[in-house]
Amino acid sequence: MAAGVNDGIVYLMLFPYLFIGGVGYFIYRMYRKNRKENDDAVSNIEQAS
After folding, report:
1. What confidence tens digit (pLDDT) does each residue in 22-34 have?
2. How far apart are the first and last CA of the chain?
3. C-alpha distances out from residue 27 to 14, 33, 39, Å
4. What is the extent of the structural domain holding 31?
5. What is the pLDDT of residue 48?
6. Helical H runs in 1-49?
7. Per the domain annotation, does 27 fall within a domain?
8. By C-alpha distance, which of 27, 25, 30 is closest to 38?
9. Residue 49 lies in a domain
10. Higher-scoring residue by pLDDT: 44, 32
11. Which residues, including other chains, have CB under 8 Å from residue 45's CB and lie 6 or more apart?
């Protein structure tokens, strides 16, 4: 029974780090996507000039 309790404690300790890491990844992915779209728009404007 103690092993199960220890596994639960480890899970509870790791969950916030995994959650924050996942949120950070999605924010990074959105930032990278928006930056790529902006870079494409700038290059289209430069080509039109």
Report:
1. 999 999 999 888 8
2. 72
3. 20, 10, 18
4. 16-49
5. 64
6. 2-48
7. yes
8. 30
9. yes
10. 32
11. none
For the chain, the average pLDDT equals 83
In a domain, 22, yes or no: yes
Distance, in Å, from the CA atom of 27 to the CA atom of 34, rounded to the nearest integer, reads: 11
Number of structural domains the chain divides into: 1
8 lies in some domain: no
pLDDT of residue 45: 66
User: Three-state DSSP class for 7?
Assistant: helix
Token digits of residue 41: 């728009």
Q: At residue 31, what are phi and psi to the nearest 5 degrees?
A: -60, -45
Q: How many Å apart are CA 42 and CA 18, to the nearest integer?
A: 36
3 C-beta neighbours (distance < 10 Å), count: 7
